[in-house]
Amino acid sequence: MTIEADIALLGTDGDGIARTAEGDRLFIPGALPGEHVLADRVDERTAHLTSILRPSPDRVTPPCPLFGTCGGCAIQHLSLAAALDWKAGLVVHALERAGFAAPAITGTVQSPPGSRRRIDLAVRRRPEGVCIGLHARRGDVVDLTACPVLEPALFALLPALRAVMQSLGALRRDGDALINMLDSGPDLLLATDGPLEAADRAKLASFARDHRIPRIAWRRAGTTDVPETAAQTASVRHELSGVATMPPPGAFLQPTREGEAAIIAAVLAGLPRRLVRKDTVIELYAGCGTLSFALGQHVRTLAFEGQPDAVATLRRATTGTRVVAEQRDLNRQPVMARQIADARAVVLDPPYTGAGAQMAEIVAGRPERIVYVSCNPQALGRDAAGLQAAGYRLDGVTIIDQFLWSTEVEAVCVFTAPPAPRRRTR
Fold this sequence. Notes:
Elements lengths: L1 E9 L5 E4 L5 E4 L7 E6 L5 E8 L25 H18 L7 E6 L7 E9 L2 E7 L5 E3 L8 H5 L1 H10 L6 E9 L2 E8 L5 H13 L4 E6 L7 E5 L5 E3 L2 E3 L11 H13 L10 E5 L7 H5 L3 E6 L2 H10 L5 E5 L9 H4 L4 E4 L8 H9 L3 E6 L2 H13 L3 E9 L8 E7 L10
Parallel strand pairs: 6-21, 11-12, 16-17, 16-19, 17-18, 19-20
Antiparallel strand pairs: 1-2, 1-4, 2-3, 4-5, 7-8, 7-10, 8-9, 10-11, 12-13, 14-15, 20-22, 21-22
């Protein structure tokens, strides 16, 4: 059934949302707020866009020929400025639901096209050859033959990677390829559904030499096994705030250099003023040290991280810094309130699901300042609700859009504890 509809807003998956005559939400991929459209009903909740009768002034021509097929980008038809405003709105709405009225956006940063330095790709062998790319929305792998998001040097590696994966006996049907562009060059973590034999290792070694790839690691697809080095031609190196580190295979990096710099700047700006040498900041979910070494330039930093390889990276690089790294599974063994209470501030960059049990200890410890780096507005809202209930004030929010044209958004939120009650004197 074809319907005529006005698009009221954009949903969290980037779909236009209209209201049916019955008042129900109808999701129309490709439609934008303010548009008047024709669409064919697919089911009770979704419709297929067939015609735009009145386009939005924010509609633009998507820059990628794969848009609408590849699942990596959802809103290339929306102008970059409007996309940034929409993402800021997602964060503001989450914080308002947590109880913070009219959150103040103190800064916005948007990474440019061609700046993405990290990507996790699906690999699939087909009768016509190997494709490397991203999954279509609820669909198969789409070969990445174009990508305006990736750094050009990273994208330029894909044809040769496609060819070498085609030659591997270890790739029977499915695999993965995670690529980080480190300061030392591309760092690859491959996964295949078959074992890596000697002939495959020789092919990967030749590929690494030909394309100046310092390291290629491998593990069996579908496992969380510690990766093994399949080929190494040089040492791996990556600087974090001027400190040389050796990240493990598949290490988490902020996806763009611009985004990383913006997050660091917002975190440092959120620290208490007049820090003295004896002061300590507790950093939670520290990873390999993206924030740790920046913090350590200003204050003694206790960096907690659960992944053993990330902690090992941190510890190798802490000599001569004011960073102390400790391995701790913060879901099972959170840093306790009594230790948090001794810190001038807590900085946390939790996983997508949020801080979980650790948040209760943060609230109970009542540190003077909490700087929360979020990659998920919904999880941010859940965690921030506890801070609002404890009387914390939201001093500012920085919005960082480094997942360009996707629906993902990051934010740095600064929370300040309420003044301690004064003691009564007789």
